[in-house]
Amino acid sequence: MDPFRNMGDWKKNLDHFFGDRFWNEFEGIMKPTIPQMNIYQKENELFCIVNIPGLNDLDNVHVYVDHATLELKGVINIDHVGGHIVTEEILQGSFERKMDLPFPVRDDKINATYGHGLLVIHLHRLVTNKKNKNRLEIRNLEDEE
To answer: Which domains are seen in the chain, by residue range?
Structure first.
């Protein structure tokens, strides 16, 4: 008899009881996200510091900035040949992370540097003088009668 045969039913029942997103709360505990990232905010600037060890070719990491979203795609690959792994705490493999930024950023003023295993992305707040306040035209129904 397979003790895990009904595991799917158990998960469905928990999803039904706690909500569909119940397991998402545990994702960072069970499998930490890579790469790790810190975001620091000044008044009109953001500094995103991303931990990417062993990056030998900068073309292996793709950084996309769109309005108020930062997206990273790439591969962490620690090329160590020989022996077998006794302890593995540095997560490796393909990654894809999408982060919401606290404010929209300029697309013409972005700087990214890599050194000592850290990717530093410097972003600047998008400040516009354009006011999005539009006066609404009110139609008089009595004039249409």
So the answer is: 1-29 (no CATH), 32-127 (2.60.40.790)
